[in-house]
Design brief:
Elements lengths: L1 H4 L2 E6 L22 H12 L7 E7 L1 H6 L2 H54 L4 H16 L2 H26 L2 E5 L20
Parallel strand pairs: 1-2, 2-3
């Protein structure tokens, strides 16, 4: 219950606000994308927290940078970025499930044909090792045709659903600014993973 009532704080200490955004994105805040390193850092930190925990973000900037930063535009940029990522992930998940459904129809059709051919083969051929080998081979081919859709439906879609939910939580997380200690910034590098500080 405490996790729901008290937001878990994700903290970033930056030299300047420009570190947070993609340097190759020409659009101004709030339509500018976050930098890949910043996104990975935030998502990595959030993934280490309980799945039902409420989230909040605090960005520490030096005094001059924090005074000139537009908090409303910053909040809109962060929320818009993660909401867009959540929608893209949801779209990927729906496409994957569509592929699984189509593949399952094809796989079941192949399985039915293979079982039917096995029955025909058993009726036309005298019992023996060759007929048994061919019959079992047809059944195996039929089940192999269903391996991929079954794998998607059992294992592959729910990590995307979990990630979409995480991104939606990040999109709705409140964001605030605070003045940082200039001697203790945190530099965000591409591919950096976050670790929650010890309590």
């Amino acid at each position: 219950m405490a996790d729901r009532e008290t937001p878990h704080l994700i903290e970033l200490r930056l030299h300047s606000l420009e570190q947070l955004f993609d340097p190759f994105d020409p659009f101004p805040i709030p339509t500018r994308d976050l930098a890949r390193g910043a996104e990975d850092y935030i998502v990595g930190w959030a993934q280490e927290l309980p799945r039902d925990a409420s989230l909040a973000m605090r960005i520490y900037l030096p005094g001059s940078a924090s005074a000139s930063a537009g908090i409303q535009a910053l909040r809109a940029a962060v929320a818009g970025h993660f909401l867009y990522r959540a929608r893209r992930t949801g779209s990927d998940m729906r496409e994957l499930l569509t592929i699984a459904q189509v593949s399952l129809v094809i796989g079941l059709t192949v399985l039915a044909l293979c079982v039917g051919l096995r029955q025909i083969l058993q009726g036309l051929s005298p019992p023996g090792a060759v007929a048994g080998f061919l019959g079992e081979g047809l059944v195996i081919v039929g089940w192999v045709a269903n391996w991929r859709p079954i794998e998607i439906l059992l294992y592959e879609w729910w990590p995307l659903a979990r990630r979409r939910r995480l991104l939606e939580r990040l999109a709705s997380a409140p964001v605030d600014l605070a003045m940082s200690d200039p001697a203790n910034p945190v530099r965000i590098e591409p591919g950096q993973t976050a670790h929650c500080p010890a309590a």
